[in-house]
Design brief:
about 450 residues; alpha+beta; Alpha-Beta Plaits; globular; 20 strands; binds flavin-adenine dinucleotide
Length: about 450
C-alpha cells in the first residue's frame, strides 16, 4: 500500500531534536499530520508510513558507539553489551560483533531491520521460547519525545512504564535515538541443526511441544495447501549454536567468518497470479520432499539457518504487482483445536500460501503492546486477490474467539475494535502515550487506522 509523505533523513541527534521541536510548534498540515519514525521499512503494513505528514528516516543514525565484550559494563546480567544508534541495521551489527565472538540474541527472519525497528515492533526470532523478544535484551534506550526532550530509559528505572511502552510501541512514544543492547558470546557463526519431516499438523504440534525445550531455536515450515490427512505436513527444524569442536575441520580455521551469499535482485517481471493452485501445490510438494526425512547434527551457516530470503533482494516481486499480504497471529496454548481450524479454513479457501511458518512463543515481557505471548504463532503469505479480506476476517474471528492476537508489524487491515480485544493492556499503553505526547505528534497511518 503506498502513501505520500515528506521524508527527512536524520543524521544527528541535534537535527532530530530540531525537527521534533519545529513540528511540535507548527500548525501547518505537516504539523497536524505529525511524525513517523521509519527504519528500513521492513514492517509489512503501514506502521512506518505517514500519509500527508513527515516521515523521519532514521537510517542516518548509524554509529556503533562502543562494544563491551567483557560484560563489565552490564550491571544487570554481566553480559557483553553494545551501545549504538537506532539506525544501525542488525545486518551491520552482526558483522561487527562476530569477530569479537559475539552474537545478537534475537534475530527476525531478515537482518535488514534497524535497532529502532527491532525495538518499535519488539521483534522475535526462532528462539522466543528460550530468549524472549528483542526488548528483553535492551538495557537502556534514549527516547526523543514530542516535547523535544531526550529521556534515558531503563527497564526498571524511574520511567520504566515509558521504556516498556516504547518496546513494541510502534514508534508512537517518540523517536528511539540510541540503545544499549545485551549480546551473547558465540564460538562460531554456525548452527547444529536437526531436521524432521512430519506427516501432519497434529503430529507437528506434538513434536514441537515435546522437543522445543532441548533446542535454542525451533521453527517449522508447513504445508497450508494440501488438505485431508496430510494437512499441515511440515519440515521441523531445531537448532543450537555450534561450538568449534562440532565444526568440520575445514570450518574450524575461521569459525566466526561470515559471508552473505547473494543471487542478486529479483527483476520486476512477474505477473500477478504466479502463486496459484498449481504452483503452490508444486512448491509445497517440492519443499516437503526436498527436506530429509530425518537428519541430525547438520552444520548450517547463518543464511541457511536464519535468512534464506535475504539471498535474493526484492524476492517479494515474484508475487507480481498486486503483491501479497502477510498474516501472522498467535493463539494461546490450549487452543490447538482452533489452530487446526484456522488451517482447515485456509486450505479450503482457494487462497494459497507457500511460505507458512509455525513457532511456539514462550513467556511475554512486560511491554503492553508486545505481540509475543505464550502460544502458537502462524505466519502465512497470501497473494492479493479478490476474497482475501473475507478469508482474513474468518481467521480474525477464530483468533479472537480464543483470546489470540495479530502482530502489528505485519498488519495493514486490523480494525480498532479488534485491536482493543486483542491487546487487553491497550489502555496502559495509551495512558503513557497521553502523558508524553498528548497531541499525538508521533503517529502513523496504522496508528490513525487503529485509533491508537
Ligand atoms: C522477510 C521478513 C522477515 C521478517 N521476519 C520477522 C520475524 O521473524 N520476526 C519479527 O518479529 N518480525 C519479522 N519481520 C518484521 C520486521 O522485523 C519488523 O517489521 C521490524 O520492525 C522492521 O524493522 P525496520 O527497521 O524495517 O522498521 P520499520 O518497518 O521502518 O518500522 C517498524 C516500526 O518501528 C518504528 N520505528 C522504526 N524506527 C524507529 C525509531 N528509531 N524509533 C522509534 N520507532 C521506530 C516505526 O515507526 C514502525 O512503527 C520480518 C520482515 C521481513 C520483511
Amino acid at each position: 500500500m503506498s502513501t505520500c509523505s515528506q521524508v527527512r533523513r536524520i543524521t544527528s541527534v541535534d537535527e532530530a531534536v530540531a525537527i521534533v521541536r519545529e513540528a511540535a510548534g507548527s500548525s501547518s498540515s505537516m504539523g497536524r499530520r505529525g511524525l513517523t519514525a521509519r527504519g528500513l521499512g521492513r514492517s509489512y503494513g503501514d506502521p512506518a508510513q505517514n500519509s500527508g505528514g513527515l516521515t523521519l528516516d532514521v537510517t542516518g543514525l548509524d554509529k556503533i558507539i562502543s562494544v563491551d565484550a567483557t560484560g563489565d559494563a552490564d550491571p544487570v546480567g554481566g553480559e557483553p553489551t553494545v551501545d549504538l544508534q537506532a539506525g544501525v541495521s542488525l545486518d551491520t551489527l552482526m558483522k561487527v560483533l562476530l569477530p569479537f565472538g559475539l552474537w545478537i540474541p534475537v534475530l527476525p527472519g531478515t537482518r535488514q531491520v534497524t535497532i529502532g525497528g527491532a525495538i518499535g515492533a519488539d521483534v522475535h526470532g526462532k528462539n522466543h521460547h528460550t530468549q524472549g523478544s528483542f526488548g528483553n535484551h535492551v538495557r537502556s534506550l534514549d527516547l526523543l519525545t514530542a516535547d523535544g526532550e531526550i529521556h534515558h530509559l531503563t527497564p526498571g528505572g524511574d520511567e520504566s512504564d515509558l521504556f516498556w511502552a516504547t518496546v513494541g510501541g510502534m514508534g508512537l512514544t517518540g523517536l528511539v535515538l540510541r540503545a544499549t543492547v545485551a549480546v551473547q558470546r558465540a564460538e562460531t557463526a554456525y548452527f547444529t541443526v536437526d531436521t524432521d519431516r512430519v506427516g501432519g499438523i497434529d503430529d507437528l504440534m506434538t513434536q514441537m511441544t515435546a522437543r522445543d525445550a532441548d533446542y535454542t531455536y525451533s521453527v517449522a515450515w508447513f504445508d497450508a495447501v494440501t488438505s485431508g490427512d496430510r494437512m499441515g505436513r511440515a519440515v521441523l527444524t531445531l537448532g543450537n549454536k555450534a561450538t568449534v569442536d562440532e565444526l568440520p575441520r575445514t570450518l574450524r580455521r575461521q569459525p566466526l567468518a561470515f559471508t552473505a551469499p547473494s543471487f542478486g535482485t529479483v527483476p520486476p517481471v512477474f505477473p500477478n497470479g504466479m502463486v496459484n493452485a498449481l504452483t503452490a501445490r508444486a512448491f509445497s510438494e517440492f519443499w516437503y520432499r526436498k527436506a530429509p526425512a530425518h537428519r541430525v547434527g547438520e552444520i548450517q551457516n547463518i543464511t541457511q539457518f536464519f535468512h534464506p530470503l535475504d539471498i535474493a533482494q526484492d524476492w517479494n516481486r515474484v508475487y507480481g504487482p498486486a503483491g501479497f499480504l502477510q498474516y501472522q497471529f498467535v493463539v494461546p496454548f490450549g487452543a490447538e483445536d482452533t489452530f487446526r481450524q484456522t488451517l482447515e479454513v485456509i486450505t479450503s479457501s482457494g487462497h494459497y500460501s507457500c511460505l507458512n511458518v509455525l513457532k511456539r512463543f514462550g513467556e511475554a515481557n512486560p511491554a503492553p503492546l508486545s505481540f509475543p505471548t505464550p502460544g502458537w504463532t502462524l505466519t502465512a503469505d497470501f497473494p492479493i486477490k479478490p476474497g482475501l479480506d473475507a478469508l482474513c476476517r474468518r481467521l480474525d474471528e477464530l483468533v479472537l474467539s480464543v483470546g489470540g492476537r495479530l502482530y502489528l508489524a505485519k498488519d495493514s487491515r486490523m480494525t480498532a475494535a479488534d485491536l482493543r480485544q486483542m491487546y487487553p493492556r491497550l489502555d496502559e499503553f495509551r495512558a503513557v502515550r497521553e502523558r508524553v505526547d498528548p497531541r499525538g505528534l508521533f503517529t502513523s497511518d496504522q496508528a490513525r487506522r487503529l485509533e491508537l
